[in-house]
Amino acid sequence: MALKPYRKTYNDGILTVQEMKTIRNANKKVIGRELIDIMQLRFSELSFRETDITLCKGLGKKLDIKVETPYPPKFTSRDTDALTIVLRGQSYGIIKTDRSKQNLYFYLQKIGGNGDE
């Protein structure tokens, strides 16, 4: 009988989680927006199933990559769909997140590049 691993390893790299911040002048008028790094997480890239693809197509999105990260404590009260993920130099928008007790699964779609947002 094989033993189950005690800890999951996330060896595929590090992703950066970013949030859009509004820049205001002295009169509190909006003058621009910038992306701010919130945190960095280790990740493991997963293969996606046919049900994942149909779920994203139903939302009108194209699934480019699915990753798994350890569940960060900062995400308990945060709306994860408004965040941006930077992975291997490419920006991704979050289509959907699945949560478990110890892991967080991101379904990601590329932002920019070839004009398909």
Shape verdict: globular
Percent helix: under 10%
Based on DSSP secondary structure assignment, what is the total number of beta strands? 6
CATH architecture: Beta Barrel
Low-pLDDT residue spans? none
Counted by DSSP, the helix tally is 1
Estimated radius of gyration: 16 Å
Strand neighbour order, sheet with most strands: 1-2-3-6-5-4
**Strand pairing plus helix content: what structural class?**
mainly beta
Number of discrete domains: 1
Give a quick account of the main beta sheet: strands, pairing sense, barrel closure: 6 strands, antiparallel, barrel
**CATH third-level topology:** Thrombin, subunit H
Report the mean per-residue pLDDT as an integer: 85
CATH class type: Mainly Beta
Distance between the termini: 47 Å
Helix-strand blueprint:
Elements: E1 13-24, E2 30-46, H1 50-58, E3 65-70, E4 84-87, E5 90-99, E6 103-110
Antiparallel strand pairs: 1-2, 1-4, 2-3, 3-6, 4-5, 5-6
Distinctive features:
1 helix, mainly beta, single chain, globular, 49% strand, 117 residues, six-stranded antiparallel barrel, Thrombin, subunit H
Task: Give an overview of the whole structure.
By secondary structure, this protein is mainly beta. The model has no long low-confidence stretch (mean pLDDT 85). It starts with 12 loop residues before the first strand and ends in a 7-residue tail after the last strand. The relative contact order is 0.21. Strands 1-2-3-6-5-4 form a six-stranded antiparallel barrel. The chain has one helix at residues 50-58; strands at residues 13-24, 30-46, 65-70, 84-87, 90-99, 103-110. The protein is built from one helix and six strands, in the order E-E-H-E-E-E-E.
